[in-house]
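@channel sequence for tomorrow's demo:
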Amino acid sequence: MSTTLSRRSMLAGGLASAGAAAAAPFLLPQNAQAAVLAAPASDSGRVFTLAIIPDTQYLFDGESLHPEPLTETMKYLAGLKDLAFVAHLGDVVQNGLAQEVAAAKEPFAILAKKNIPFSVIAGNHDLPNSNTDDQRGPTPFLDAFAPLASKQRIAQDAGGYNSAYTFDGAGTEFLLLALDWRLSTAGIAWARSILEAHAQTPTIITVHDSVSADGGTAVQSAHGKLVWDQLINENQQVFLSINGHFWPSGRITRKNAADQPVELHLANYQQLYYGGAAATRLYRFDLDRGVVDVSTEVPHIDAGGLNELEREELQLTAETDRFSFALPPALTPPTRRDPRPAATLVIPGTEAYWRFEGTGTLATGSRIEDASGRGNALVVAGPSTEPLVFANDSHPSQPANSSLTFSGSKDTGAYLLTADDAPINKAAFEGGYTFEAFFKLPEPFNGDSAWSAIISRWVSAKAAGRVKGDVDEPAATLSISGGPELQWCVYPTNLDRSVTNWGHELRTSRWWHVAVVNDGRHTTMYVDGCAVVRNPSTVNKGLAGGETGAPWTVGAYSWAGELDKTWLGTIGDIRIVSRALAPREFMIA
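structure tokens (generated this afternoon):
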């Protein structure tokens, strides 16, 4: 190829060398953290915010009552459009006195007025006698906050100090357990009963005392170990625990009995200037990315100019104040659309539409019929030592909920070819085209997977009359580089050389949709409906090779007209349309 690095030159060095390492995995499985930190936050989709307010006790200390910072925090939170729940971590006040509690209660009315669900738990300073557990009986704290419970409170224990809430997080139900600073045997039994009744509901625990970071390293306290042993370890739905009480802030990630990670977080800013000024920690859940982005804000200092200590201590940007973590896969299943009949996908201009629906394996010579009705059937070719296998797996937005798995090598694996009499073999697409496909890369992705093709024309550029570039490569191919990156490399009918579109590095073990669109002048690649950046500006139209009548192949790449690579991974629906589609017309739309 004359205008970009060729397939063979990249294999020899440059990008191929840089891409030799396995790609970063999808965010949800293991080794997610590096990918989490690099991934952008969604601007739409399944996103919501959980707000945490740790110890505010120094604002409400005896005769020194300063509700203003907490009021500013509540106003700020009430203005968040995606706010789902607010949880106070206890030590609302310093001495558990009635006048302290009364002053601290008022800002919570801002949330109540807007029907924003919230919870408040008792810390040791909220109680006249902290040497008691959740069976202690009435206190000014309980008298004030128990009646404020939102309609999202689904249960409360007999003593009143432990409660459970469900809330809607971007269409997913979450459970939040708000637990006392000292759990009794009865309190633990009550919490277990709630967890057992909500075994399939992703759960967050808030408790005043769990993780300590006094020595600079986060560790579980004695009470935190009790909570872990009795409530977290054996309950796989618990993925996050948050506490205050200690300082400075810290976090631990620990594996539960099912070998799944559980995030244990300590958030507390009371030791800072102005008692932390009612700082709030925001957990921004992005269920589509499978990531929680955490930040810490102090709305009180944003309400006016900063003084010296506010500037020095309350702009919270340390790694324990702003970070991201991955959600367990089971907690963020993709929103899957219902299957769509093939006929609804056969839009004007459809030349071929292949769906891989079935069970078991496909023997050599088996046919996949063309759902477009244009007679472009696919035929299984290759040795079939490792045959093609139907899979009950697909992109969440794919019309058909099944796919085809390719697992062999050049010498052992099967692939698909259009039938000898398929009309698409002679198509030139000079009026424009759209090639769409759903696919999933294997994990791990290595050299055996690189430079295979999702769909390719089984004719070399040389055989199609071209003399410039790597003319032994196919006249048109949608391939995966060693990156792995998508590559659409074609020899247009109006040029004597190739033009290439490049995608970005793809994460493995997840489904992707690709669409390559040519409007008769320019070609644009879209990944999951989003245009990529590396699209050629050269005017190009049509696809060379149609004059040879050579077949198209799915799951194989040819070199000099001979089989060079077979696909490793899974391929779903493929549609070819003889016009430029708008993204709203894609199969993923």
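heads up for whoever presents: The first strand starts at residue 47 and ends at 53.
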